[in-house]
Structure formats: structure tokens, C-alpha cells
């Protein structure tokens, strides 16, 4: 079947969104970046900034030298996430197969929708109009038989074009005279070797290189590169998967690096999250803690709650993280476009009934908090002040009630009693709060 | 002695722990009624000499000690006398130099003359037997501890009969003796347990307060220091690593109250204090005998060598007599040297320098005919009227100081020789005490507080200039510099804390050249520790080392000596001309003199800076005597005198300030120029004696000596007044004296350096290609490499690109050509570079690229660098550079896979012009093939700019020039406003510009070294030196220009944009 892939390209997405929020920015050289941060780079540059010589990835300090009246806007990740989601939802009206590749880049598989929306070209134009009228965002549309060519087509007609359609079968001819660096997915290292060292500047030249020579340079990537040069790309449009999650997020009133205050804040968040678990009757198997520092660096730590295999379960009170702990740390600078839309403050999606390796005690504040605290000390290993904390519970399952029968054989009875006491305590607190409000009863540690 | 004495006290030399300076500790202890005080810094005697001197001034008896701390144990070790001091130094040296150091083990074997106080249970158990039993020999009943000595027989804890029982302490007390070991009781904490253990083991106890601060309030600072040191934040500090809040310098009555229940511990304090508070004196010089024992022996040896050397220096053949003048001078100097016992010092220095052919003795030692004869210095002190008394005179109490420069790349070898000859036990380098300074303190505290880097940088960036002038915590709130920053909390707090820790020592580093040699072992005199660089350093910086009598030799690295060496070698290689460094005399060479007179001296030692070249241009003198004056007068604080000097030099009339000065300063036109002029003037005008005169000179060069300087001022005014000198004359002379603050040079030093300048100027005049090649190769000159390359081109030399067969590692010059060396290739690994040269040494030149790949085992990334640099162009055989890249990949791939590619090499055209330039910048760091300004010829069309070489024709007019940034010098005006002198170049010449404060403020953010500029300003001339006083600046590559020009061009790009 003939495929029709539409690519919607909203250039400098971050800046475009900021311009919607603040129309005065329009027509001015604007970049997104963290002003004042060390080694901060340009994350996104408006057309005007681009024309002044500013490029993505350039240090902000240099950018200021190129352009004296440059406007630097600090990144607002949640805003871009929301905007991206709106675009996505709008395009979902056209086809169930929509893939947000990154901010401002979406693929829509329009194969077989001719009866609904007419010719792909008309559908693409409609998408563009809808995005412009409903979201005030300007994009270009590329249409071709695959993702590769549609993306190049959309890119090629920027900034002022509207729709560019490449006829089926004309892909190779379309690409041939173009610059190699227009090929999306070409990693920077590959591009440098290809263009700067080997002097292959046009797709046509690339197509002419014997595959054996490509192989000595690029190894296993060579056949793919060769196909790209000929305009061949068979990857499908993949809609994102959405997983249910519970998220608690707090922006601190004042940045601080005082552990006591941070842990107090986390305890309150843990209370809320655990309550939501209990109310939803679910157990989480993964905990993710995100610490965002005052210098906008983000550190993420995650751990599994409860062991994988049943026999492997540890008692909750031994202070360790249980089972196959997969705590891993990575520093993530926000706004790199790779983070997919985070969870909302509600449980969405379908909860699985698989109860393998879940630990029900983690629905109790104090037990869950042990994990949170442990992750905190891993994630918060810098001196930098913290600006925002978030905990996310994912991999939610509805526990099998029968498990309780075996629990007594798995846990020493004294500990079992302890858990039982905690459970009753929490139940009592819940009742008090239901009646008199959350503030009615508090842990001493959260009071400053 | 009565009352309480603190036996365990930390100053801020317990680095990043203690919060009090030694001065504060001594004064406060005195004020709180104590008459003795111990200083026991952590693992060191870092402030010992300062302590002894301050204690003396304050009137407190000093006790020397240190707290030795390892991971497991800690003990305060106090020295009872000289022997105890040596033991202490030894222990500390071992603590730092021995990775497996165990305090207990060390103390068991080495405790002569020391008193050990400890609260470590383990240590007390292990030491109780060996240390107390020994004390028992003279004080305790026999039979208390008759066990064999040595390892493995240490007493075991708890075993009955092992630990000495009874009451040794009381026995000792009756005898009035002091035990070797005490259990240290600190209030609170572990005191009860220690007390129990002490009773069990029969160890006497002693009360201390482990003082870390003056007052309880300083606990905050202590925590802060710990947090900075441990790289953590306050809320995550380990409490075990902190001193308790109570560890302040408590007055005796408080201590008595705290230890009311242990009177014995208080009594022992008094006893120990009485035993350890001896009069410490560090007298005399510590220096080895070069010629064996007996100072006459060394002197005779020195005399013989000096005479022999003098014959050689003055060209007197054997059998003929040295002239009277020379003999007199030699005998005069030898008499003083002999009297002071410095003969060995000279012999040792001579021994070192005689092993290295090219050196430059500098500093005041150049005033000595002995050092001239020995070859340590190279300026004839008789001919150039250098006075020996500047170096050594009978009145001077401090040690002489011989500084010798070596080619920078030979210095490690020199140090290696010294260490080898005298042994690592006897040689160590002087330390620098690296202190927290304003900016660093603010930065570190802000980091503990967790503030973002950007915010910190914004504040510290501005703080630098203000600090020290007004030490006001409110500074940041009121000063206009901080107008536009939001400095809410916690900034005021941070600034206040930073003031509190400003100047705290932080760690040691290696002094750049100071070497100490002792006759026996360094660790007898001062603790030493290994520096990260691998050499051992002593715990004192140069002032304390000098005060303690350790004599330092400065062995310093100098780039220009290496330049001279390399040029001489190249000249011999290229033309077969041999110049003997030791006898070579370029002073009368006309070409050299002309060059110096023109200020055409980029690359020439010491006279290449824009300021110096301008001075040369203005004076138009090229003789040695004037160059000596110039290299001395060009010091930071002497700006006004430089102008006056030039005026007078050109015959400007001047009224004499005072007849006395005319006499003294005749050769420098009545202007004080050399350091020793200060001494001379103070002696002649204000009746200073030689010692005070010298003291004034020293006070000027030290920041710490502000008080002393004020005293000297009073003395000067009084003395001069008494001699009838008018008040306004005294004012003027004193102001001139103050212009010597900071650094200044003595005439012998300037003469030594001027000689090196002459030698390098000679080489520049006669062998320009070799010279420029060597200047670039040795790096570290005043200018960046690119500026030297430009200069070479202006000199008419051809700068040739690197070549695989023709380039050496350094730049090479022959005739009128300079070839870029492989060292310039950024990204070429040293292994790759070596492989290329090695392959060439073995098999001769490479004939083709394929052959190169076959012959040389080299990383492909290195080959890529070589290709991009165009190294293979001469042997490519018609292939383009991209084709060579393909060939490289193909060959590597074939080797890896063991397969063969059948297809022919892809036909790829050569890189376009822009890529070629881009590669050039990438691998060389700058453009060699053309000047970057030539890329903007299009933009410059129709612009009425003046070429730099023609600026002299526009004096007094406002012109526009084109400029590429070369170098800049930021200075502050008298009113503390920043301004900058910037050197720019265009394709015709280099030229100097001035950005006065107003203009500087407007344009400073625009100045960078990667963009072309248009400059507007007025051309000014001063005694022939041309400068441009800038009033407007624009980027040559910016759209702004479009507005200015009638024609518009859509794509105006800079070099970088052009290339990226």
C-alpha cells in the first residue's frame, strides 16, 4: 500500500511557544537558555537570532557577542510539554498514528485517509492552518512516502513555505541535489566525518560511494546511510505509549540546600503520594525522585519497590532498598527535548493486575519514605541549592489480596506486628484528616 | 610559672580548621592573663617563626608543638628543647612522607625530648609501656616495666601486670620531672573514659581545651571551613570531624572550673609548661660546607677559583698579573664573604651552574666580581659600576640571595642534579602558603551555601577590584558597581563571613625555584612534606625559611635562555658559525643597537612588551647603559617618572630637587630608578644607616609591612628635616620612594637582564628566521603565537606550512624562511609526533602517502590531523586531501577486516577554500597562509581607512583604522577606573591604542581576539611613538556597518561565521 507520511515542523519550537505567551518577543532575536548558568548554551534560537549567526549549542556568552540586543529566555519545560501535547492532540484528530519525534517535530501517518481528509496535500495544509489558528504556531509540512523524506521536505521549505509534497518514487531524485547535512538522524559525529573530512557534501555524492568504502568508515551504519542517500526509510510511525503514574511535585518557596528542610518537604509529598496509592488501591513498583537545582541541573534517581521474584522479598524495615535495586543516576539538563510528557497528578491509563514483586507496605507513609530518603541522598549529592523536588510512582499494580495470607510466613512475626501497627496508625491519621483536614495532624519533622 | 597554660592550640595554620591567626592568639592569650602558650597546629609547624616572633613581641613564652593526626589516632607532641624540636620535625616529616605512617609505632621508637598528650585509647595503651618505663629509669622504682624492648613487645591492653601499675605520675611530681606521656583530658566528650583508662594504665593526665577558636562565636567559622574543606554543605557535615563549640581559648579560671575535679591534670599543665617553655632561638645560617669542614678551607678554594675565573673573564694570560683594580675588588669581596662565612654558598652555586652552559645569574648577586669570575653572573661589575654592598655588606643580617635563571626546559634537570648530589634528605624546595583571598573566599562560601555558579561569578567578578580598599560589609549594598545585581540574602552574610576568613592559609604549593640545602637532614630543621609535583617541600614559605636561617638558592626557569640556546645551535647547524655564549659580547654591535633603539623588539627578552617598545621608540637609544635604566624604570608605579625621564633624556631642563640627589642619581637624570637608590637616598638625605636603608627598601616590597613603612616614613621626614631639607622637597622625594612599592629592580639585576636582552636582540638582528622560530617554539612569550607569526611576516620572512618531510617538532628557521613545526598541530598526540619523526630517522623521507601508512605505526586520528594540516600535499601524488582521507579509512579498514576493497578510490574533489581555511584554524589554531583581515577585503572596499604603517602621517587627526586584536593590558587609573592599552595590527603594522575609562566602559565587552574591528580615534605622538586614542569601535563584520555604509550587503560574516 502506498504510504503517506506527513511531517509537521515547527521551527524553534521553544521560542515559538514563548512568542505565543509573550507576543512582544516576535521579530526579535530570541534564544532559550539559562542566563547566568556556567557554560550555558543556546537551546533554541529564533529565526532572527539564527540570522545574526547564533546556533543551537553555542555558548550563551558567545551568543551575546554576536548579537547585542539578544533576548535570553530561561527554559520553561512544563510549558513546552503542554504546548507539545496540544499539538499532538490536535493532530490526533487527523490520524491515530501520530508520533511526536521531538518538540516541534511530529509525524502523522495519513495512509488510507483520503476519503476522510482528501488528498494528503490538502490534509497537510489543513493541519497547518489548524495549528496556526487554534494554537498560533507556524509550521511547515512535508509529505512523502516515508518519514525520512517527509522530514527533509518540511525542513527544506522553512521558514516561509507551507506544504511540500514529494511524489512517491521521486525520493532519490528529490534528495540528490541536497546537502548531506539536511538528512535527519545523521548524528553529529557522522556528519563531521562525512562532510568535513571526506568532503561528501551532497546526497548525490553520498549515493555514488561504493558501499564497501562506506563500510570501512561507518561500519554497520553503512547500509542505512546508503539507503538514506537513495531516499529509502521503512520505519513506521509509532504513537507514544502512556503509562499510569502518580506524581507529586513541589517548587520550594525559597531555594535551599538544608537537608532537614528538604526532607521535611519530601515527607509531606510522600504522605500525599502514599495516600493516593491507598485511595486508588494500587501499589507502585517503581519510584523515581527528581531533584532540580537552582542552576537548572536536574538529577534523577529511580529504584524498584519490592523484589521481582516472590521468594526474594525482603522485610521492609531493614533499611535497605529491596530486591533487585536498580538505582541509577543520570544528570539531565531539562529541555533537551528528549523527555517525554511526564505524568499528571492523576492515575491514568490501565493498571495491570500482575502483582509479581510488589511490596504492599510501600503504601504506608513511613515505609515509602525510607525509599524516598535513600534516593534523596543519592540524587542530592551536590551542594547546590534545590529549587524543585518531585517524586513519581510508576509501574502501578493492583495487589492480589490473597497475598496477605502468605505474608505472615514471609516476615518475622515481630516485624509483621510492626507493619500492622503502622497500618493502623496510618488508617487513624487518614480518618482524622478526612474529618478535620490535612493540617489537623502533622509529623513533628515537617514543622519548621 | 603559675596559672593555666593552653597546651593544645590550633591557629589558622591548622588549615581549614583553626579560625584564629597566630597574632590574635598571642594577644588574646596575654589579655586573658596567660604568660605562656603552645601552638600545636595539625600535622605541621607552618607558622612557627611567626609564632616565635609574635610571642616575643607580645611577651608570652612560646611552646612549640603540633598535633599529629592520622586516620586512627591523634596526639599532641610538645618539644622540650632543641632535641625535642628535632624529634618533632622528624615525626612530622614521616607523617607526611610515609604512606604507612603509624603514630604509635613512630612514637615508640622516636620520642627523645618530646612530651606526648593524647586522648586516643589505642595510642595510650600502646605507648604507656615504652614511654613511661623509660621515664621510670630516672624517676620510678625499678621493676615496674622490665620487658624486652622492640617491636612486637608492646604492652597489651587490660592484661594485669602488663601495664605499669602504681602512681608514676606522683612519683615524677615529687621529683619535679615531666613524663613522656600524658592522657589528654578535654572537657566534655570522652574525658571520663580517658580518665578511667589513664588510671588503669597509670598514665598521668593533663587538661587541655583543644583550642580551635578565640571565642565560642567563631564556631560558625570553624564549621564553614570544614564544609569548604570537605566539599560539602553545612547540613551534611560529619559532627565527628568538628571541634566542639567549647574549644575556644578559655581564660585560666574557666579551665580551673572545668577541671575542678582533676587537680592533678591542672598541676601537670603547669609542670609541662614550665619544662617546654624555653627560649627558642633560630640563629645563624644553615648551609652545608662545600669543601669539607673549616670555613677557611672553603674560602681558600673560593679565592683560587675566583682568581682563575677573573683571568679568564678579563682575558689575562697566565703569567701576567691581574690589574690592581680587579685584585682590590676581589680581595674586598672575599674579605666580606669570608667574614660572613658564605664561601661555601658561592661554591655550591658555582658547582651547579658549571654543569649547565647557559645560565643567567640575576638579582643583587650580579654586583659581585666574585660571582662574575665564577661565571654565575655575566655583567662586569667594574665596567658597569655595580656596587658590591648592594649584595653583601657587614651590616646586613639576612642571608644573601643568589638567583640563577636556567633555560626553562632544563630547570627540572638542574633540580634533579641538586637533589642527586646532596640527597633527598638534605634538599627540599621552599613552599608557598596559598591563602584564601577575597574572591576565592566569597566563592567558596557561596558554594557551601549552594548558590548557582552564574550568580557567584557575577558577584565575585566585581568584588575583585574593590576588596581591600574599603573593608566594609555594607560594601555590596552601597557601591555603584553592584547597582544592577539583586544582592538579597544570603549575600551580605556571605560577604561578612568572607571577610572573616580572608587570608586564611589553605594549602602549600611549591615555590617556583627556591631550594634549601642543609648539611645534615632537612627534617632536623623543619618538617617537610611531599608536594603533588613529587619533590619535597619544607613547611615554611620563603620569609619564615629566611628567618629560621635556612639559606635559599633560587633556580628559576627562563624561556629566553632556551631561545638563545636554540638559535645558537641553529646558527651553527645552518651556517657553521659558532658563538661562544660565555665570551660573546653583543653590546657594541651597531645592528643590535639600532634594533633596540627602534623598539623593533618583539620576541626579544624583556623588551618586547608594548610599553617597553614604546619607551624604546621614545628614547631612541640603543646602548647598554640606557637599556639597563629602561628595564628598571618600567615598573608599575613609576608611570609619571617615565614621562619625565624621557623628557630629560631628550635634553629637557629640570630643576634639581636637592644637590645630594644630583650626585647620587646623575646617571639616571636625577630620577630614582633602581631599588638601591631608595637606600642611597635615605642614607644621604635622612641619615639612615645601611641597615635601616635596606629595611626601608624591603618594607616597600612587602605588603605585610605597612606599619614598618609608616615608621620609616616618620624617620625619613625627621632625618631629612633635621638636615634642613625643605618640606616640599621631602614630600616629592618620599613620593618617588613610594613609586618603588610592589616590585622594583636593583641595577645589578637590570644589568643582568639587559645583557640577555642584548643577546637575544643580536640574534633577532642577524638571524631573524632562526630567532623567530625559536621564540615561537619555546612559547610563553608576551604575545600569542599568532602575533609572532604575523611579526615574522612583517619582517619579510616566509612562513611555510607544515610538511611531513621538512617539518621538525619545533619551528625551524633558515635564511628568510620559517617552517611551522609539528608541535603546532593541535590534536596531534605526542606519540604520533614521535612516530613521524622516528620513521623519518630510520628510513629517510617519506615518498608517498601509502608508504607513510606502511612505515609508520600511528593512530588514524593523528593522520587526519596531518592531512588537514596539508602535511602530505608534497607527496600526495595528485590526490586531493579528501581522497587521502578515504585512502586512510580504506587502509585501516582493510587491515581491520583483512579484506581488500576492489573499487577504485572515490573521486572526491578537494576541499573548497573555506574548508581549507577552517581546517587551518582547526589544526594550527590560527591562519598561517594569510592574515585573517584579508578575508574581509570585500567589506573594506570603499572604506576610507588608514593603514597602520601610515599612522605617523596623521598625527593630531581623527582617523579610522582596521584592526585585529594582538594583546591588551588592563590598568586602573588613580581614581580606580579601569582602562586598557590594546595593541592591534593590520596587514601592514602593529599599532598601539588607548581606551580611556569612558570609552573602555562602552566597548570593553566587544573586545575579543577572533573578530576584525574598525576603530576610530585621534592619532597622538609622544617623542616619536604613535598611539591611537580610540573613541569609537565597530565590528568590521557586523550589520551595524551596513547602516553606516550606503551600499548594503546581505551576508556579512565574521571569520568564524565565515568558516563554520
Outline the structure in words:
- The complex is a heterodimer of chains A (448) and B (1060).
- By secondary structure, chain A is α+β, with helices and mostly antiparallel strands.
- Chain A starts with a strand and ends in a 12-residue tail after the last helix.
- Helices cover 39% and strands 17% of the residues of chain A.
- Chain A has a five-stranded mixed sheet with strand order 5-6-1-7-8. A five-stranded antiparallel sheet of chain A has the order 9-13-10-11-12, covered by helices on one side. A three-stranded mixed sheet of chain A has the order 3-2-4.
- Chain A has helices at residues 13-21, 47-51, 60-66, 77-92, 114-117, 120-135, 147-156, 171-175, 188-197, 203-208, 211-218, 222-229, 259-280, 365-379, 403-410, 413-436; strands spanning 5-9, 30-32, 44-45, 71-73, 98-102, 105-109, 140-144, 163-165, 245-256, 283-293, 298-304, 328-332, 386-397.
- In chain A, helix 11 packs across helix 12 and helix 13 packs across helix 14 (365-379).
- Mean pLDDT of chain A is 82; it is low at 308-349.
- Chain B has 1060 residues and is of the alpha/beta class.
- In chain B, helix 16 packs antiparallel against helix 17 and helix 37 (860-868) runs antiparallel to helix 38 (881-897).
- The model of chain B is unreliable at 135-176, 468-472 and 1040-1060 (pLDDT under 50).
- The interface between A and B is large, with 38 and 50 residues.
In short:
With 448 residues, chain A is of the alpha+beta class.
Count of DSSP strands of chain B: 21
Q: State the strand order across the main sheet of chain B.
A: 1-2-3-4-5-6
Unreliable residue stretches of chain B: 135-176, 468-472, 1040-1060
Largest sheet of chain A: 5 strands, mixed
Largest interface in this structure: A-B, 38 and 50 residues
Q: What string gives the helices and strands of chain A in order?
A: EHEEHHEHEEHHEHEHHHHHEHEEEHEHH
Largest sheet of chain B: 6 strands, mixed
Total number of beta strands of chain A: 13
Amino acid at each position: 500500500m502506498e504510504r503517506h507520511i506527513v511531517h509537521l515542523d515547527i521551527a524553534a519550537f521553544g521560542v515559538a511557544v514563548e512568542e505565543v505567551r509573550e507576543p512582544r518577543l516576535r521579530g526579535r532575536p530570541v534564544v532559550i537558555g539559562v542566563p547566568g548558568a556556567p557554560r550555558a548554551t543556546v537551546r533554541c534560537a529564533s529565526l532572527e537570532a539564527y540570522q545574526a549567526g547564533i546556533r543551537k549549542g553555542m555558548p550563551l556568552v558567545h551568543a551575546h557577542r554576536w548579537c547585542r540586543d539578544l533576548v535570553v529566555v530561561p527554559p520553561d519545560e512544563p510549558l513546552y510539554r503542554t504546548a507539545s501535547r496540544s499539538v499532538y492532540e490536535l493532530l490526533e484528530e487527523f490520524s491515530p498514528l501520530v508520533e511526536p519525534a521531538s518538540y516541534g517535530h511530529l509525524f502523522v501517518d495519513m495512509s488510507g485517509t483520503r476519503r476522510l481528509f482528501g488528498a494528503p496535500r490538502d490534509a497537510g495544509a489543513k493541519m497547518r492552518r489548524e495549528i496556526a489558528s487554534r494554537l498560533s504556531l507556524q509550521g511547515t509540512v512535508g509529505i512523502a512516502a516515508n518519514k525520512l523524506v517527509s522530514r527533509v521536505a518540511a525542513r527544506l521549505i522553512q521558514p516561509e513555505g507551507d506544504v511540500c509534497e514529494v511524489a512517491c518514487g521521486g525520493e532519490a531524485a528529490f534528495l540528490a541535489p541536497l546537502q548531506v547535512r539536511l538528512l535527519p538522524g545523521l548524528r553529529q559525529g557522522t556528519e563531521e566525518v562525512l562532510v568535513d573530512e571526506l568532503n561528501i557534501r551532497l546526497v548525490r555524492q553520498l549515493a555514488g560511494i561504493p558501499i564497501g568504502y562506506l563500510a570501512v568508515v561507518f561500519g554497520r551504519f553503512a547500509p542505512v546511510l546508503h539507503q538514506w542517500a537513495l531516499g529509502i526509510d521503512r520505519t513506521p510511525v509509532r504513537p507514544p505509549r502512556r503509562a499510569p503514574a502518580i506524581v507529586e511535585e513541589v517548587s520550594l518557596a525559597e531555594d535551599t540546600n538544608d537537608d532537614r528542610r528538604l526532607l521535611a518537604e519530601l515527607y509531606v509529598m510522600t504522605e500525599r503520594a502514599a495516600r493516593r496509592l491507598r485511595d486508588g488501591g494500587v501499589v507502585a513498583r517503581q519510584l523515581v525522585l527528581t531533584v532540580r537545582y537552582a542552576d537548572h541541573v536536574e538529577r534523577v534517581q529511580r529504584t524498584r519497590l519490592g523484589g521481582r521474584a516472590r521468594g526474594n522479598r525482603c522485610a521492609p524495615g531493614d533499611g535497605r532498598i529491596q530486591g533487585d535495586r536498580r538505582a541509577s543516576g543520570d544528570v539531565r539538563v531539562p529541555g533537551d527535548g528528549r523527555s517525554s510528557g511526564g505524568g499528571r497528578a492523576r492515575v491514568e491509563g490501565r493498571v495491570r493486575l500482575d502483582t509479581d514483586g510488589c511490596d504492599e507496605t510501600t503504601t504506608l507513609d513511613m515505609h515509602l519514605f525510607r525509599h524516598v530518603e535513600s534516593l534523596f541522598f543519592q540524587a542530592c549529592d551536590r551542594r547546590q541549592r534545590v529549587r524543585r523536588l518531585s517524586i513519581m510512582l510508576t509501574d502501578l499494580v493492583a495487589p492480589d489480596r490473597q497475598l496477605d495470607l502468605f505474608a505472615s510466613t514471609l516476615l518475622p512475626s515481630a516485624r509483621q506486628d510492626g507493619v500492622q501497627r503502622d497500618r493502623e496508625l496510618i488508617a487513624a491519621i487518614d480518618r482524622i484528616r478526612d474529618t478535620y483536614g490535612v493540617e489537623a495532624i502533622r509529623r513533628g519533622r515537617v514543622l519548621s | 610559672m603559675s596559672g593555666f597554660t593552653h597546651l593544645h592550640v590550633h591557629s589558622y595554620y591548622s588549615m581549614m580548621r583553626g579560625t584564629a591567626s597566630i597574632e590574635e592568639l598571642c594577644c588574646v592569650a596575654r589579655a586573658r592573663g596567660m604568660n605562656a602558650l603552645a601552638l600545636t597546629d595539625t600535622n605541621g609547624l607552618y607558622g612557627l617563626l611567626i609564632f616565635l616572633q609574635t610571642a616575643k613581641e607580645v611577651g608570652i613564652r612560646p611552646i612549640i608543638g603540633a598535633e599529629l593526626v592520622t586516620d586512627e589516632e591523634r596526639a599532641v607532641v610538645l618539644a622540650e628543647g632543641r632535641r625535642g624540636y628535632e624529634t618533632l620535625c622528624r615525626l612530622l616529616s614521616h607523617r607526611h612522607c610515609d604512606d604507612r605512617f603509624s603514630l604509635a609505632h613512630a612514637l615508640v621508637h622516636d620520642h627523645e625530648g618530646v612530651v606526648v598528650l593524647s586522648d586516643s585509647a589505642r595510642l595510650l595503651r600502646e605507648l604507656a609501656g615504652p614511654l613511661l618505663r623509660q621515664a621510670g629509669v630516672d624517676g620510678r622504682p625499678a621493676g615496674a616495666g622490665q620487658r624486652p624492648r622492640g617491636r612486637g613487645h608492646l604492652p597489651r591492653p587490660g592484661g594485669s601486670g602488663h601495664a605499669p601499675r602504681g602512681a608514676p605520675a606522683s612519683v615524677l611530681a615529687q621529683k619535679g620531672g615531666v613524663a613522656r606521656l600524658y592522657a589528654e583530658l578535654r572537657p566534655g566528650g570522652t574525658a571520663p573514659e580517658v580518665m578511667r583508662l589513664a588510671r588503669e594504665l597509670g598514665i598521668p593526665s593533663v587538661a587541655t581545651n583543644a583550642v580551635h577558636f578565640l571565642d565560642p562565636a567563631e564556631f560558625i567559622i570553624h564549621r564553614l571551613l570544614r564544609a569548604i574543606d570537605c566539599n560539602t554543605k553545612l547540613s551534611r557535615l560529619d559532627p565527628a570531624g568538628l571541634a566542639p563549640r567549647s574549644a575556644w581559648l578559655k581564660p585560666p579560671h574557666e579551665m580551673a572550673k572545668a577541671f575542678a575535679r582533676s587537680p592533678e591534670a591542672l598541676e601537670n599543665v603547669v609542670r609541662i609548661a614550665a619544662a617546654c617553655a624555653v627560649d627558642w632561638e633560630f640563629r645563624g645560617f644553615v648551609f652545608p660546607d662545600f669543601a669539607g669542614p673549616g670555613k677557611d678551607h672553603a674560602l681558600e678554594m673560593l679565592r683560587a677559583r675566583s682568581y682563575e675565573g677573573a683571568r679568564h673573564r678579563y682575558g689575562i694570560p697566565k703569567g701576567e698579573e691581574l690589574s690592581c683594580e680587579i685584585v682590590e675588588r676581589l680581595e674586598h669581596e672575599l674579605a666580606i664573604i669570608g667574614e660572613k662565612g658564605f664561601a661555601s654558598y658561592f661554591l655550591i652555586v658555582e658547582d651547579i651552574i658549571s654543569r649547565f652552559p647557559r645560565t643567567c645569574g640575576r638579582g643583587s648577586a650580579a654586583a659581585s666580581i666574585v660571582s662574575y669570575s665564577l661565571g654565575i653572573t655575566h655583567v662586569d661589575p667594574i665596567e658597569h659600576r655595580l656596587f658590591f654592598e648592594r649584595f653583601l655588606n657587614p651590616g646586613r643580617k639576612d642571608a644573601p640571595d643568589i638567583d640563577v635563571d636556567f633555560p626553562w626546559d632544563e630547570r627540572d634537570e638542574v633540580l634533579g642534579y641538586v637533589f642527586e648530589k646532596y640527597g633527598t634528605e638534605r634538599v627540599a624546595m621552599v613552599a608557598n602558603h596559598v591563602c584564601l583571598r577575597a574572591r576565592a573566599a566569597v566563592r567558596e562560601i557561596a558554594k557551601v551555601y549552594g548558590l548557582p555558579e552564574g550568580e557567584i561569578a557575577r558577584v565575585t567578578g566585581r568584588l575583585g577590584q574593590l576588596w581591600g580598599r574599603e573593608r566594609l560589609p555594607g560594601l555590596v549594598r552601597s557601591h555603584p558597581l553592584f547597582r544592577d545585581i539583586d544582592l538579597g540574602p544570603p549575600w551580605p552574610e556571605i560577604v561578612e563571613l568572607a571577610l572573616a576568613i580572608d587570608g586564611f592559609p589553605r594549602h602549600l604549593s611549591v615555590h617556583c625555584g627556591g631550594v634549601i640545602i642543609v648539611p645534615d637532614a632537612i627534617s632536623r630543621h623543619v618538617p617537610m612534606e611531599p608536594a603533588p609535583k613529587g619533590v619535597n617541600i619544607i613547611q615554611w614559605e620563603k620569609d619564615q625559611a629566611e628567618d629560621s636561617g635556612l639559606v635559599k638558592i633560587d633556580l628559576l626557569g627562563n624561556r629566553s635562555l632556551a631561545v638563545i640556546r636554540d638559535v645558537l645551535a641553529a646558527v651553527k647547524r645552518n651556517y657553521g658559525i659558532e658563538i661562544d655564549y660565555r665570551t660573546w659580547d653583543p653590546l657594541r654591535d651597531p645592528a643590535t643597537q639600532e634594533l633596540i633603539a627602534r623598539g623593533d623588539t618583539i620576541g626579544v627578552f624583556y623588551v618586547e612588551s608594548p610599553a617597553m617598545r614604546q619607551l624604546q621608540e621614545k628614547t631612541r637609544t640603543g646602548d647598554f647603559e640606557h637599556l639597563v635604566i629602561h628595564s628598571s624604570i618600567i615598573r608599575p608605579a613609576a608611570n609619571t617618572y617615565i614621562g619625565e625621564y624621557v623628557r630629560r633624556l631628550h635634553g629637557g631642563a629640570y630643576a634639581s630637587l636637592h644637590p645630594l640627589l644630583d650626585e647620587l642619581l646623575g646617571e639616571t637624570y636625577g630620577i630614582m630608578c633602581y631599588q638601591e637608590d631608595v637606600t642611597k637616598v635615605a642614607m644621604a638625605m635622612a641619615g639612615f644607616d645601611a641597615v635601616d636603608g635596606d629595611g626601608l627598601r624591603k618594607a616597600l616590597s612587602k605588603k605585610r609591612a605597612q606599619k614598618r613603612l609608616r615608621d620609616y616614613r616618620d624617620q625619613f621626614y625627621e632625618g631629612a628635616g633635621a638636615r634642613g631639607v625643605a618640606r616640599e622637597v621631602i614630600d616629592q622625594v618620599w613620593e618617588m620612594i613610594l613609586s618603588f612599592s610592589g616590585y622594583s629592580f636593583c641595577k645589578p639585576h637590570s644589568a643582568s637582564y639587559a645583557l640577555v636582552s642584548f643577546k637575544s636582540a643580536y640574534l633577532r638582528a642577524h638571524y631573524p628566521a632562526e630567532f623567530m622560530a625559536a621564540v615561537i617554539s619555546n612559547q610563553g612569550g608576551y604575545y600569542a603565537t599568532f602575533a609572532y607569526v604575523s611579526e615574522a611576516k612583517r619582517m619579510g620572512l616566509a612562513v611555510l606550512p607544515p610538511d611531513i618531510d621538512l617539518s621538525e617538532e619545533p619551528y625551524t628557521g633558515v635564511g628568510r624562511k620559517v617552517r611551522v613545526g609539528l608541535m603546532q598541530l593541535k590534536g596531534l598526540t605526542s606519540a604520533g609526533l614521535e612516530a613521524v619523526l622516528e620513521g623519518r630517522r630510520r628510513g629517510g623521507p617519506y615518498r608517498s602517502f601509502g608508504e607513510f601508512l606502511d612505515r609508520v605505526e600511528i593512530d588514524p586520528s593523528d593522520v587526519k590531523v596531518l592531512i588537514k594540516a596539508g602535511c602530505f600535499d608534497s607527496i600526495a601524488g595528485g590526490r586531493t586531501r579528501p581522497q587521502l582521507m578515504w585512502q586512510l579509512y580504506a587502509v585501516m579498514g582493510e587491515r581491520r577486516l583483512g579484506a581488500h576493497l576492489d573499487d577504485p578510490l572515490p573521486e572526491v574533489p578537494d576541499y573548497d577554500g573555506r574548508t581549507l581555511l577552517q581546517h587551518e584554524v582547526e589544526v594550527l589554531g590560527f591562519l598561517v597562509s594569510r592574515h585573517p583581515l584579508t578575508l574581509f577585503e570585500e567589506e573594506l572596499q570603499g572604506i576610507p581607512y588608514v593603514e597602520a604603517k601610515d599612522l605617523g602621517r596623521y598625527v593630531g587627526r581623527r582617523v579610522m583604522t582596521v584592526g585585529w586584536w594582538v594583546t591588551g593590558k588592563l590598568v586602573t587609573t588613580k581614581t580606580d577606573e579601569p582602562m586598557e592599552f590594546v595593541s592591534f595590527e593590520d596587514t601592514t603594522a602593529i599599532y598601539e591604542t588607548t581606551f580611556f575609562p569612558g570609552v573602555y566602559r562602552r566597548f570593553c565587552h566587544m573586545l575579543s581576539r577572533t573578530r576584525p574591528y574598525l576603530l576610530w580615534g585621534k592619532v597622538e605622538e609622544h617623542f616619536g611613538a604613535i598611539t591611537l586614542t580610540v573613541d569609537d569601535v565597530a565590528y568590521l563584520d557586523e550589520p551595524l556597518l551596513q547602516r553606516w555604509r550606503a551600499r548594503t550587503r546581505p551576508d556579512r560574516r565574521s571569520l568564524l561565521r565565515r568558516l563554520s
